């Protein structure tokens, strides 16, 4: 069952840079989970750099940022190091986390159809409840919008 706004997010674990990610471990802190198609591609790199550059502001809003794609841990480790990301990246090769958040969509590229990750971001409150979602994300301005929502939620 996919998640819904104002509902608790089902606990999950997944392999990540820095060790196993477990949602329950983040109780008491807000969490931004952003899904992106592929490491080391222009849009995904720009999006990750935006979260990297706003890391201190997210931390000040009691918010942890985590990225998710279907890339391997090895690719994630290289991408994270190359870009200087201060946040973890989840490797979702089996698409279990993508399925929970319903982000796998039919896409078209050069006339060919394929299943891929729809760039999406989710804001989870300190009690593990989904409070906001952004689907079909366009990278420019997105991180600022998510940061403003995290700051407002932290003050609520």
Automatic annotation (TrEMBL):
Q: Which reaction does it catalyse?
A: a hydroperoxide + [thioredoxin]-dithiol = an alcohol + [thioredoxin]-disulfide + H2O
**Which keywords fit this entry according to its UniProt record?**
Antioxidant, Disulfide bond, Oxidoreductase, Peroxidase, Redox-active center
Q: Might you give the EC number(s) for this enzyme? A: 1.11.1.24
What is one process in the GO biological process aspect for this record? cell redox homeostasis
User: Catalytic center at which residues?
Assistant: 44
Organism domain of life: Bacteria
Which CDD domains does UniProt cross-reference here?
A: PRX_BCP (cd03017)
Q: What class of enzyme is it?
A: oxidoreductase
In what residue span(s) does the Thioredoxin domain sit?
Answer: 3-155
Q: Which GO terms describe its molecular function?
A: thioredoxin peroxidase activity
Entry GO terms, CC: cytoplasm
What family classification does the UniProt entry report for this protein?
Belongs to the peroxiredoxin family. BCP/PrxQ subfamily.
Self-association or partners: how does it assemble?
Monomer.
| Role according to the record | Thiol-specific peroxidase that catalyzes the reduction of hydrogen peroxide and organic hydroperoxides to water and alcohols, respectively. Plays a role in cell protection against oxidative stress by detoxifying peroxides and as sensor of hydrogen peroxide-mediated signaling events.
Listed name of the protein: thioredoxin-dependent peroxiredoxin
Originating species: Phytopseudomonas seleniipraecipitans
């Amino acid at each position: 069952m996919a998640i819904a706004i104002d509902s608790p997010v089902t606990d999950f674990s997944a392999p990540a840079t820095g060790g196993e990610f477990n949602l329950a471990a983040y109780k008491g802190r807000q969490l931004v989970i952003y899904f992106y198609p592929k490491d080391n591609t222009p849009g995904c790199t720009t999006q990750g750099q935006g979260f990297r550059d706003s890391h201190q502001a997210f931390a000040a809003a009691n918010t942890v940022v985590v990225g998710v794609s279907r890339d391997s841990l090895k690719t994630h480790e290289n991408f994270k190091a190359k870009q200087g990301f201060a946040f973890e990246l989840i490797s979702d090769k089996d698409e279990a986390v993508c399925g929970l958040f319903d982000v796998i969509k039919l896409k078209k590229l050069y006339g060919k159809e394929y299943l891929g990750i729809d760039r999406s971001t989710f804001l989870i409150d300190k009690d593990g409840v989904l409070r906001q979602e952004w689907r079909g994300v366009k990278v420019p301005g997105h991180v600022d919008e998510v940061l403003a929502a995290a700051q407002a939620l932290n003050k609520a």
